[in-house]
Write a structure and sequence with these properties.
The structure holds 2 protein chains of 2 kinds. In chain A, about 45% of the residues lie in helices and about 15% in strands. Chain A is α/β, with parallel strands linked by helices. In chain A, the strands form 2 sheets. In chain A, strands 1, 2, 3, 6, 7, 8, 9, 10, 11 and 12 form a 10-stranded mixed sheet that branches. Chain A has a two-stranded antiparallel sheet with strand order 4-5. In chain A, helix 1 runs parallel beside helix 3 and helix 17 runs antiparallel to helix 18. Chain B is an all-alpha fold. In chain B, helix 10 packs antiparallel against helix 13.
Chain lengths: ~450, ~290
């Protein structure tokens, strides 16, 4: 009855191709002006700057602030700030036609697939920006003001093509007040976790709930446990699609650990069918003690969290006594991917805008308005933070250099999907850890054999 | 006929035809072209790959799963909807029951997204309407995590689809039934036909055109199902692919995997499936037209 949606999809794809047929091919050097100490990137002072920002959970106040700074430094330039939601739909035709804006925050559900942008050579190397003096201290390069892992995460085959702005950590959340009331302490090892769960059960509370509709959420503690046990080598072998990486002892033990939650009845009934909102709200109402989530949870739950709930994030406990990474090690990634398109008209202006964005002033503003941790190291020092954000900042400190992150989700979307499906089945006890590992390994092997997917390798 | 008339007609027709050509025909044509390429959605560097995308389609387990599920929808949705709609239309024929037709039509006023969200609330395990109802009537043992069980999830989607569609066909069939002359019913009653016989021998044959149209519309809707599955189900398309439909595979390949060429091939396949279905249904349901005048 409604073939129209399909037609629209096809139409959209086709129309965008149509746009490419009519596209100009004018190449642009980026309009470079004179270089000076105040203008280290050589911005042409009167060149207009177009900025497109994803205006989602974090708002776009911080990006506007960077625009204002830019305007102050280059009064002759006209800054065009656009805060939008469907970044991909708006920018896809412009990338095809090679008439993109000068800076893009490619984030949100409707973003362009990063791997595709990279493999099509649409992004500019940000090396020049990273080696430029930072705004706050000209003696330090921009590169040296960022948290560990941020530059690596934006690196594709030796080139830094994106810089993420917000730092995200993954852990297990609980209510400090609920734990204080019952005298529980957050466990250090998975064995302690299972013991504590039995105790929580006796108190009439479900130990865990999870966002069953989107199995990705429970995958995060699973792969975190595996990384802690197997160390950086394991993370690397997974990302590099090495044979039998998903069947390695550390990964299998991690799957077994999570599987035990289901086997021992530590999960709130019905969780497997709950959306993230439903599960998180149940947790906020005290129906379950733990929930796995990234560090955005506090901001997301702001409206429904009862006063005095005091949510905090704990790092995923150690899998065993012989883990390769120390106890505080944490899975982290950064989000809000800022990039400068290869064919930007005012590319130098775009880089300069990012230099201002990654300054202390703008990033502190971000921590306050967006309630999230910016990737600028030490940006939140001295600020009064909410309980959740404070626990996240503490986790970063405790972890020190022991931060890990997987890349396969960005690189190989089909593997992501297979992992999520298999993990959903694992939690429903329809597959056991052995079968789980076999399924995911097969998906990884399929990705490796698929010539149409561009492969990446990581060294670090 | 005045000589300027054709010029005027042509002048009036050309703008809409051009618009139709640019916004309907040409995207279709380009999608057919894209189906033979490796277009990734952002690069204008597009290569022809021949039939590779279509070959891949036949080896894609998830797409084939989607095809099977659409097949099941194709059987269940039209049959369920038409049976219910005929029943409701016949049952609301008398005065006093007419307001029900308005009520049945309500779902038609809601957008698909709202319907999906509403039904998700119905099925949600702990605070959902369905489990709450089962508990209230003492059938607590029948409670389920409806959308999280592979054997039930697709049927839950089917129920929502039927619920959403049935009102429209009640109105369609009611209108058709009202155009049947009353004397036919009176004659049948004089011959001693019971209400069921009247319905089967008189009503249904005389509104067969409408039923045929309903089969085609519902068949096309059953080959889609994307929006409901995308919003309602676990995954979406899950658990573990148990509610995958072809439209969802298409969407995922285009917008998540950046395989626009392959997704266009899926679109082309769905286009021909839909076309075949329409032609086949018209042929298969052909009956002698009944003259009532």
């Amino acid at each position: 009855m409604q073939p129209t949606r399909r037609v629209l999809l096809l139409g959209a794809a086709a129309a965008s191709l149509g746009a490419c047929a009519t596209a100009g091919t004018a190449d642009n050097a980026g309009g470079k002006g004179g270089v000076s100490a105040a203008n280290p990137l050589g911005v042409a002072e009167d060149a207009p700057l177009e900025v497109v920002i994803f205006k989602g959970g974090y708002g776009d106040q911080y990006a506007k602030e960077a625009g204002t700074l830019y305007q102050q430094r280059y009064p002759k330039a006209k800054v065009d700030h656009k805060g939008i939601q469907r970044v991909g739909e708006v920018l896809q035709p412009r990338f095809i036609a090679d008439t993109p804006p000068d800076v893009v925050d490619n984030s949100g559900a409707g973003r362009l697939d990063l791997a595709t942008l990279v493999s099509s050579g649409k992004l500019r190397d940000l090396k020049e920006l990273l080696d430029a003096p930072s705004l706050d201290d000209p003696a330090r390069k921009v590169r040296d003001t960022l948290m560990p892992g941020v530059v690596e995460e934006g690196t594709f085959d030796g080139k830094v093509l994106i810089l993420n702005y917000s730092s995200v950590l993954w852990g297990v959340w609980y209510s400090k007040s609920l734990f204080a009331k019952h005298g529980w302490t957050y466990p250090k090892t998975w064995a302690e976790m299972l013991t504590l769960n039995e105790e929580i059960k006796k108190a009439g509370i479900a130990p865990w709930t999870w966002q069953g509709k989107y199995p990705e959420y429970i995958c995060d503690p699973l792969v975190s446990l595996a990384a802690k046990a197997g160390g950086h080598e394991l993370v690397r072998s997974i990302d590099n699609l090495e044979p039998n990486a998903w069947k390695s002892p550390a990964m299998l033990a991690a799957a077994e650990a999570i599987y035990q939650l289901a086997v021992r009845g530590h999960i709130m009934a019905g969780s497997e069918a709950l959306s993230h909102t439903e599960a998180q709200n149940a947790w906020c109402k005290g129906q379950a003690a733990f929930i796995p989530c990234g560090s955005w949870l506090e901001g997301e739950q702001q409206q429904v969290t009862p006063a005095g709930f005091d949510m905090v994030m704990g790092t995923v406990p150690a899998l065993s006594g012989s883990d390769k990474l120390p106890n505080g090690a944490v899975m982290a990634a950064s989000s809000e991917a800022f990039l400068v398109p290869q064919k930007a008209k005012n590319a130098q202006g775009g880089l300069e805008y990012l230099r201002l964005l990654f300054s202390r002033q703008v990033s502190r503003g971000f921590a306050q308005s967006a309630k999230a941790l910016p990737v600028v190291a030490g940006a939140t020092d001295g600020l009064t933070l909410s309980s959740g954000l404070q626990s996240v900042a503490d986790a970063v400190k405790a972890a020190g250099p022991n931060v890990f992150g997987y890349r396969f989700r960005t690189w190989y979307a089909p593997l992501s999907k297979a992992l999520d499906d298999a993990t959903g089945e694992l939690l429903a006890k329809r597959v056991n850890p052995q079968q789980w590992a076999e399924r995911v390994q097969k998906a990884a092997d399929d990705v490796r054999a698929d010539a149409s997917l561009k492969k990446h390798t990581r060294q670090g | 006929m005045r000589p300027g008339k054709y010029r005027f007609l042509a002048g009036a027709m050309i703008p809409p035809l051009v618009l139709y050509g640019v916004f309907v025909i040409s995207p279709y044509a380009q999608a057919f072209y894209l189906a033979f390429t490796d277009f990734n959605g952002v690069s204008s560097d597009v290569h022809l790959v021949g039939l590779e995308n279509f070959g891949r389609l036949l080896r894609d387990p998830l797409f084939l799963k989607g095809l099977r599920h659409n097949g099941l929808l194709l059987l269940a949705v039209p049959l369920g909807t038409i049976a219910l709609a005929l029943f409701f239309a016949a049952a609301t024929g008398r005065r006093g029951t007419r307001p029900y037709r308005v009520v049945y039509f309500f779902p038609q006023l809601l957008s698909v997204a709202i319907i999906a969200v509403l039904w998700q609330f119905v099925y949600t395990p702990n605070s959902g309407l369905l489990n709450g109802f089962l508990r209230a009537v003492g059938l607590a043992s029948l409670r389920r995590s409806w959308l999280a069980e592979p054997d039930l999830a697709l049927w839950c989607v089917i129920a929502a689809m039927v619920w959403a569609a049935v009102g429209f066909y009640v109105v369609l069939f009611s209108a058709a039934m009202e155009s049947i002359p009353v004397d036919l019913y009176e004659a049948a009653a004089l011959d001693g036909a019971g209400p069921f016989a009247v319905f089967r021998r008189i009503t249904v044959p005389l509104i067969w055109d409408s039923v045929q149209v309903a089969f085609i519309y519902l068949g096309i809707a059953a080959l889609d199902g994307f929006a409901l599955v995308q919003i309602m189900t676990v995954g979406p398309g899950g658990p573990d692919g148990s509610t995958e439909v072809m439209g969802l595979s298409l969407y995922r390949n285009a917008f998540t995997y950046g395989k626009y060429g392959y997704a266009s091939a899926m679109g082309v396949a769905i286009f021909f499936l839909t076309l075949t279905l329409a032609v086949f249904t018209l042929r298969a349901t052909k009956r002698e037209a009944v003259e009532t005048a």
